[in-house]
Amino acid sequence: MQARRISRELALLSIAQLPNKPEQLQAQTLQDVLLAAIRTLTVEVQDTLETAAAELNRSSERLLSSETRAGSINTSRTMVTEAIELTQTAINRVGAALELPEFIQLANQKEVRSYVMELLTQTQAHRDEVDALINRSMVDWQMHRLARIDQDILRLAVTEICFLGVPHQVAINEAVELAKRYSGEDGHRFLNGVLRRVSEQFNREKSGLEAPST
């Protein structure tokens, strides 16, 4: 796995757990970032397993009170299926938490820390500008209505596009991969559409700013 890909994943998972001031971020070690990422995954696993357990309890209660009515049995079966899917999601999160240290060990650790710090610092330093651009690019929606993980995926990708000189398609593709791994069902398609509009909006605004000097 490439160092930058690891950096993006670490940035996504740790951003909510680390200081939001750029000067404080610069003082963080790679181990600090890794610990923050694993804490985020741990919280997600706990929340997901609690939701799965609640679904199983609801299913069990419905079966006990249903007198084996077909409708109740079908509903209960659906709940069990959802609980199984949630449990699988939790297992995947545990797997991700276990994989991160190994990925970092195999990668160029200096490069990983350098890019994750740059990405986090620039994202926090330009957060207002980034959020404004995202909101201008959304159709009939507002950024604050998105899940936190989706907001952060967008922020990191837009920061790469606008402030780190990453080719637009590369930033979009990497964001889509993160969304497939961590966002809700079909979330990657929605984020892909938003980021494509961000790219178009950024190019239009950049061209407008540069037009007088050409």
Describe, in plain words, how this protein is organized in 3D.
By secondary structure, the chain is mainly alpha-helical. The chain has 2 domains: 1-108; 126-206, Orthogonal Bundle (N-utilizing Substance Protein B Homolog, Chain A), CATH 1.10.940.10. Helix content is 81%, strand content 0%. It contains 9 helices and no strands. Helix 7 packs parallel to helix 9. It is globular and about 65 Å long. The mean pLDDT is 86.
Write the layout of secondary structure elements.
Blueprint: H1 3-14, H2 22-25, H3 30-66, H4 70-106, H5 109-125, H6 127-137, H7 148-163, H8 168-182, H9 187-210
Helix pairs in contact: 1-3, 1-5, 1-7, 3-4, 5-7, 6-7, 6-9, 7-8, 7-9, 8-9
Total count of helical runs of at least 4 residues? 9
In the predicted model, the low-confidence regions spanning at least 5 consecutive residues are none
Number of strands: 0
Our count of domains comes out at 2
Largest sheet: none
